[in-house]
């Protein structure tokens, strides 16, 4: 009868006496107890059910509200095991399990919890950044489309070596720093010296990207100033530092000596290559006509008979370069002293850059300056502006010649000026090996190669003159 009265009172909207309220409690005390129980056990108000259906019921109401002995709803404390029990995995998958409640969160009002996120009603999905798995909350990683906190776009993950590796000093290459580094087994690393850093920067300039074939010509009106030596040493520097192919062509009509600067592997000459040009299809075919030195520099020799080499004309030179540029990235040409020679016009028309070679003497400087004057007078002013002047055989004491003024003279007319020091190994006139050169000479060669390579970006940019058949 008491249960019926309670049910009737519930239907009439009256207060319901809770099971855990004292039996002798007054009606006013029961009214204060009922809302507390209702806040824990009663489901939130849901929209009306469809026609013909009964009153809406929430699956979580029966799961979250324990019943008393008389079948009435019993309010459980907020921290009781019933409200913080482990979520069953199957129930979580179905979405009909009661969600654990956080202190201070009213699931009916959707109030913000301790984390600042708004909690949904019971039975709804877990918060957006967590998912219930076997009673535990798992924090997933941020997806590719999820922006990082504080960012304005998709998160980017930098996995480069510079970002992941800890910064470390470069190992020294020369001097006492290298000795200390090697002597301590790498435990003490004083870092590279300023000279090592400068050398590394020069090597980076030498290895600048090159698109197509870059053609360099060595010129001088005076013989004996070191054109052939400069051709060999510069070509060897490029070949030893760059990964592409480098070849030097002997275009001297007066029995050139370029083939004597590296070990001779074949007796074939440029004449043999032109004779068999129709059968050359791949690099290995060209390689049968060249000799290669220790630095990987290849040389295409000229005829040793002056009477035969005199017939090497402009058309012959153009055919040679046209064939070589399909297989080589850098082509150096060792020219003779005669600027009026037939092949010289072809050399100047196809060249991307010039090296004007002079000795460290007054007559050598005058001859090199006269070469520039001739080029200006014959329509090669653009080639002069892209040329590099090389002053050879500079000794520590140059006597009464003011080399600074000589350098200033060529610097006003050329793109750059490089001084090559005197070297005993080069004075021998035999085969050249870079390892036998003095340190000062190797540094000057590296600077020369870097200066020439600075113009690689303009390879093929010159306006070529048309070939006039003869």
TrEMBL record:
Residues in the signal sequence: none
Residue segments, region Disordered: 1-159
Keywords associated with the record: Cell projection, Cilium, Flagellum
Superkingdom to which the source organism belongs: Bacteria
One GO cellular component term: cytosol
Biased composition (Low complexity): 33-43, 59-81, 134-150
Entry's Gene Ontology BP terms: negative regulation of cell division
Keyword field contains Thylakoid: no
Example of a GO MF term: ATP hydrolysis activity
Transmembrane segments: none
Listed Pfam families: AAA_31 (PF13614)
Protein name: MinD-like ATPase involved in chromosome partitioning or flagellar assembly
Organism for this UniProt entry: Actinomycetospora cinnamomea
């Amino acid at each position: 009868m008491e249960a019926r009265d309670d049910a009737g009172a519930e239907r009439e909207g009256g207060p319901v006496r809770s099971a855990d309220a004292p039996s002798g409690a007054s009606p006013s005390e029961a009214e204060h107890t009922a809302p507390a129980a209702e806040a824990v056990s009663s489901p939130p108000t849901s929209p009306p059910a469809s026609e013909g259906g009964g009153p809406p019921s929430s699956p979580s109401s029966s799961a979250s509200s324990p019943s008393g002995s008389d079948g009435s709803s019993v309010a459980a404390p907020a921290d009781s095991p019933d409200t913080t029990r482990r979520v069953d995995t199957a129930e979580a998958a179905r979405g009909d399990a009661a969600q654990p409640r956080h202190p201070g969160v009213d699931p009916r009002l959707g109030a913000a919890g301790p984390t600042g996120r708004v909690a949904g009603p019971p039975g709804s999905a877990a918060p957006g950044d967590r998912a219930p798995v076997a009673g535990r909350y798992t924090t997933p990683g941020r997806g590719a489309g999820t922006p990082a906190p504080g960012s304005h776009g998709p998160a980017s993950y930098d996995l480069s070596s510079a970002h992941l590796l800890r910064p470390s000093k470069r190992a020294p290459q020369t001097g006492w720093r290298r000795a200390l580094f090697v002597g301590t087994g790498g435990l003490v690393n004083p870092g590279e010296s300023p000279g090592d850093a400068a050398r590394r920067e020069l090597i980076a300039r030498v290895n600048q990207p090159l698109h197509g074939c870059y053609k360099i010509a060595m010129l001088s009106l005076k013989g004996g100033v070191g054109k052939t030596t400069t051709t060999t040493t510069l070509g060897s520097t490029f070949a030893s530092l760059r990964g592409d192919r480098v070849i030097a062509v002997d275009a001297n009509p007066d029995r050139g000596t370029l083939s004597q600067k590296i070990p001779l592997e074949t007796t074939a000459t440029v004449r043999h290559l032109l004779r068999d040009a129709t059968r050359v299809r791949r690099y290995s075919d060209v390689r049968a006509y060249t000799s290669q030195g220790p630095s990987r520099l290849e040389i295409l020799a000229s005829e040793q008979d002056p009477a035969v080499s005199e017939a090497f004309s402009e058309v012959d030179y153009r055919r040679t370069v046209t064939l070589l540029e399909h297989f080589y990235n850098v082509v150096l040409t060792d020219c003779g002293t005669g600027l009026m020679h037939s092949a010289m016009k072809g050399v100047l028309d196809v060249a991307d850059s010039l090296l004007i070679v002079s000795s460290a003497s007054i007559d050598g400087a005058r001859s090199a300056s006269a070469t520039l004057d001739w080029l200006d007078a014959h329509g090669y002013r653009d080639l002069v502006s892209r040329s590099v002047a090389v002053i050879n055989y500079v000794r520590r004491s140059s006597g009464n010649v003011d080399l600074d003024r000589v350098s200033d003279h060529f610097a006003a007319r050329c793109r750059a000026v490089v001084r090559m020091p005197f070297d005993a190994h080069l004075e021998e006139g035999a085969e050249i090996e870079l390892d036998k050169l003095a340190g000062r000479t190797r540094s000057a060669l590296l600077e020369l190669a870097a200066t020439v390579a600075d113009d690689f970006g303009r390879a093929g940019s010159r306006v070529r003159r048309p070939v006039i058949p003869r």
